[in-house]
Amino acid sequence: MLDVPSRLPGTIEWQGPEPGRPAADPPGPIGGVDAAIRPLTDADVNAVVAFPLDAWVPVFASFQQVMGPRAFDLVYPDWRTAQARAVAEVCRSGDVDAWVADVDGAPVGFAAVRWTEEDATPVGEVEMIAVAPSHQRAGIAGRLLDRAVAEIAGRGVPLAGIGTGGDPGHAPARALYERHGFTGLPLVRYYRPP
């Protein structure tokens, strides 16, 4: 069985806005798309497992380019299967809250928050966030992120965190997090075949 890491190689940790910062956009159309943010249900899981795989193709292509094919194949021999399993596990986890962006009755984006601690400080960790390629660049990821941060603040949790890669494939994610008030803490993970 393939072990799915909780953090991808070369991740960058992000610490979020202070509690009380306005985090939720008004309901209604998102970038011209009529989308609703709602809690994830069991009926959403299959759709939510499928579209992130398409959304993350550029990320894993970037990983392969940065790492080289040999190291990439050793670390990610079947990334699609591993990521599908990881998304399904997050969606079904009892210690995660998740939301979907719904367009015409179908999920096109999702975000999940895991409740953790860092050195005894409670943290709402945005564990995953993804939007179907067909609905990217419409503000959906920002609305999902705002919804997650609003939930974190609403529970009185003093810190929001999110991890992402430092590779070119994650550049749009880093830009989104910075626009929403997160500050980067650069971390690097190195690989090489022996």
Automatic annotation (TrEMBL):
KW Acyltransferase (keyword) present: yes
Entry GO MF terms: acyltransferase activity, transferring groups other than amino-acyl groups
Keyword tags: Acyltransferase, Transferase
InterPro entries associated with the record: Acyl_CoA_acyltransferase, Bact_Acetyltransf, GNAT_dom
Residues covered by region (Disordered): 1-31
A Pfam family annotated for this UniProt entry: Acetyltransf_7
Domain N-acetyltransferase as annotated: residue spans: 35-194
Protein's UniProt keywords contain Acyltransferase: yes
Record CDD domains: NAT_SF
Protein known as: GCN5-related N-acetyltransferase
Origin species: Geodermatophilus obscurus (strain ATCC 25078 / DSM 43160 / JCM 3152 / CCUG 61914 / KCC A-0152 / KCTC 9177 / NBRC 13315 / NRRL B-3577 / G-20)
